[in-house]
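Forwarding these from the shared drive since the link keeps breaking.
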Amino acid sequence: MSKLPLTEHIPSLRRYARALTGDAWMADDLVQDTLERACSKWRLWLHGSDMRAWLFTLMHNIYVNQVRRSVRQAEAGTTVNVDDVAHELLASDSGAAESIDLQRCLLRLPQDQRIVLLLVSLEDLSYAEVAKITDVPVGTVMSRLSRARSRLRELMDSPARPALAVSSNPPTPLRRLK
């Protein structure tokens, strides 16, 4: 059970948000949204309960809502054609194009697996705490964690894909972020 004041949890919230979103600005926005929600809903926190788990639950719910909102917006037609932004997608010649880093591999995991993997490995939360945060049974947490670890191993061992790989599938439209 966490007895730290709210401000002491900010570094772990930022670390988790950064790993979850893959972008520093989006992560900071997510942390800010989480802290705003915590301040406005502080009466819902049960004194003596684990504040850390409560904050991570808030962050998880906010993140899921943001993802759902962005999917709805993408379906509504707020997409960008990949060909229009191809110049922004080209990899640099620094040699980084030959390997996929851990962050890119994490972002390629399904969202439910990535969330569980990050909470268990990055934030060192127990399976029970992760189950409470994500509102799924402990067995589901263990299953998602196992699949995430296995998939991450596969992704890390596979060769890097070029930035603009030619495939027979039509390109997925990108969504524009503010």
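-- next protein --
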Amino acid sequence: MSLKQLIANIKPLDETAMRSARARQDMLTKPAGSLGRLESLSIQIAGITANASPHLEHKVIVVMAGDHGVTAEGVSAYPSEVTPQMVMNFIHGGAAINVLARHVGARVTIVDMGLAIPLPAMPGFVSRRVASGTGNIAKGPAMTRAQAMESILSGAEIVTAEIAQGLDILGTGDMGIGNTTPSAAIACALAGFAPAEIVGRGTGVDDAGLYKKISAVERALKMNQPDARDGLDVLTKVGGFEIGGLAGAMIAAAANRKPVMVDGFISTAAAMLAVSLAPGCWNYLIAAHRSQERGHQAMLDWLKLAPLIDLDLRLGEGSGAALGLSLADAACKILNEMATFGEAGVSEKG
């Protein structure tokens, strides 16, 4: 399916389902509004799914991985070979995302969107390689426009396949040494932020490393001149294959009435791209958490998304999204399983 067709399939939230969910929330055995964001979250999910009693049985976290040429500028505390090493850790179930996914009962799918070194086929691992890593954005474009579109459509196809296996809510995750740099560049390009406002320490670079990152983003923006009015151009000029894949995944989820639990800094950059390409998908996004990464709050503000939690996370992988999935599940269970005043024989407010 083309990107244009996917965007055309994104519908507004279902107002009838939301009214029914809101009415039930007001009848549950509690003071109205006393469960705060859990109430509004359940109503949003009802609108997304067009179901006044949504159930999130099949929780899926898609972790997209890719390498970045900009690591040559010294923007990361870790070498680029850590990307495939961590992907292997994901596949073997030993990373934080695996532990948290097991904790919340989520399925994890790992996708190679553009590792510098390809990995063999393994269960739970999907190869949708666009190329062997992106170009160095400080010296030229990250990819071609055709590759940018390929990354988006590949991400959409991954989610479509996951829906066929059973997917009620999507959690987004990433892996890519150096990918906070293109993510910051995307945010600056789309929202007009100054790099010093957005660029953070990522994997934990020192002051010299932070300066290199800011400089790399400044040079990327000056060299490539990404067009803020064209999300595909921004992805082409300063993005990453896994970031494009995540944007496509979000658009496909919205086109299929599935809620999207957005992880941290990288996933939020992908969400900015997704909204710039398909404004209608905004209603389907839920911000899992506020990252410790500098600039994340400004990106959330631009998206007008309020994070569910703030635990000073800055790992990525979908770790915050996994915790967010648990809250979304809890919100829907409150809506569906809690007794109303009438059912419980409890007197209502006088």
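The first helix runs from residue 3 to 8. The chain is about 50% helix and 10% strand.

- D.
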